[in-house]
């Protein structure tokens, strides 16, 4: 039976791979992005995660198109990397508002419909950086670490209604962003990874698809790393 799935930031990179995986699974998939772009077969909705009214309008459009959201993948995020002494209030605020508060907004709105349905899956896309830390990414690491606390609190709040809340924490993934890094820098990253390679966006999508599946119904409040072993022990 096809489900109503919403992937935020699903127009490129990891988010796009996740949306495409759900489409292949036969689900009804909606994708939000600032540009309003989406993979073929997905319902495209323009949404600004920092604007509560825009989030509400996006959910209204998705619900009219394919019913209440049964699977939410909160993936939308930005970076404003710089060392802490150079980091402005704007650099901090924009990342926290988009990555952490934006995820709160969509999770809260999705939970309304899930509570009525008495079922649902909420999956946050975090990062190994949120567990390990990274120089120049104080804002990003804080936003991604915050998703873990949010998911675990939601798992406790919503579990009695058969709603799970989990986190997927990707490591270094081959995307357009990593492809432009110098070869020496890519090689240095790979040296830190026990599996000796970067992951693919499809490998992250596979983990998300499993968490959304019926046979993962007893998994909640978990952090699933897809990082080649980089963050083990964290």
UniProtKB/TrEMBL annotation:
Its EC number is 1.1.1.100. InterPro entries: 3oxo_ACP_reduc, KR_dom, NAD(P)-bd_dom_sf, Sc_DH/Rdtase_CS, SDR_fam. CDD domains: BKR_SDR_c. It catalyses: a (3R)-hydroxyacyl-[ACP] + NADP(+) = a 3-oxoacyl-[ACP] + NADPH + H(+). The keyword DNA-binding does not apply. The active site is at residue 140. Keywords: Fatty acid biosynthesis, Fatty acid metabolism, Lipid biosynthesis, Lipid metabolism, NADP, Oxidoreductase. GO terms for biological process: fatty acid biosynthetic process. Homotetramer. NCBIfam families: 3oxo_ACP_reduc, PRK12826.1-2. Catalyzes the NADPH-dependent reduction of beta-ketoacyl-ACP substrates to beta-hydroxyacyl-ACP products, the first reductive step in the elongation cycle of fatty acid biosynthesis. This is 3-oxoacyl-[acyl-carrier-protein] reductase. The gene is fabG.
